[in-house]
Specification:
The protein has 225 residues and is of the alpha/beta class. The radius of gyration is 18 Å and the shape is globular.
């Protein structure tokens, strides 16, 4: 199997070295860039499978780099940054980041996020039937089953669940979900979203109070797993 290639864009030499050692020891190929210009060039010429992007770059804001990359780069971009305000996280995710980890980060968690993101890249164009344990979602037939029993969902509930499932492992912001499911006019209706998530959890989760599929990312949005 061909190794996945990961591009690291970070201006801190010690972080680049740490990530290079960690990734290489886990069978990934690495590309290293110390600034935005070099990072965008490497992304264009080497077509990495995933990008690890720092927001605090010396020549350009990482938020601007993210928006520039998202004009043409369709694979996963994970943010690694000391910027940990809710505003920074939400802005990055709304601008197309696949995930967001703050420094210092735990190596095991980073590797898990990378595996999930690369798996999602590989599976995006596969079967329309998605399985998560005993939960199956047939996107084409718009049928959801749990333990082989059909779960009755409204059209909106199915659209919401389908959006979550197609973005497995990725944090989706409140604004993004509301825009995708209900349209631009609903982007600020976060309480509206909470009601639908609560209803959906009652239908698909074993214990809605301790959900295993629809996970709340406090102040940001939701992650489906």
């Amino acid at each position: 199997m061909t190794k996945a290639t990961i591009l690291v864009i970070d201006d801190e030499p010690q972080i680049r070295k740490l990530l290079e050692i960690t990734l290489e020891s886990n069978a990934y190929k690495t590309l290293l860039a110390e600034n935005a210009k070099e990072g965008v060039t490497l992304a264009a010429t080497h077509a990495p499978d995933l990008i690890l992007l720092d927001l605090g770059l010396p020549d350009k804001s990482g938020h601007d780099v993210l928006k520039e990359l998202r004009l043409w780069f369709t694979k996963a971009i994970l943010i690694l940054s000391v910027q940990n305000s809710e505003e920074d996280i939400v802005n990055a995710l709304d601008n197309g980041a696949t995930d967001y980890l703050t420094k210092p980060f735990r190596t095991a968690e980073l590797l898990a996020r990378i595996r999930a993101a690369i798996k999602r890249n590989a599976n995006e164009e596969t079967s329309s039937v998605l399985s998560f344990g005993m939960l199956t979602i047939d996107l084409a037939a718009r049928v959801v089953k749990k333990n082989q029993d059909v779960i009755k969902l409204t059209s909106t509930e199915f659209n919401l669940l389908a959006l979550f499932a197609k973005n497995e492992g990725r944090v989706l912001t409140h604004h993004y979900i509301l825009k995708e499911v209900w349209g631009n006019a609903y982007q600020t209706e976060t309480q509206y979203l909470r009601v639908f998530v609560g209803t959906l959890r009652k239908k698909i989760e074993d214990d809605p109070n301790q959900p295993k599929h629809i996970i709340t990312e406090s102040g940001v949005g939701y992650r489906f797993q």
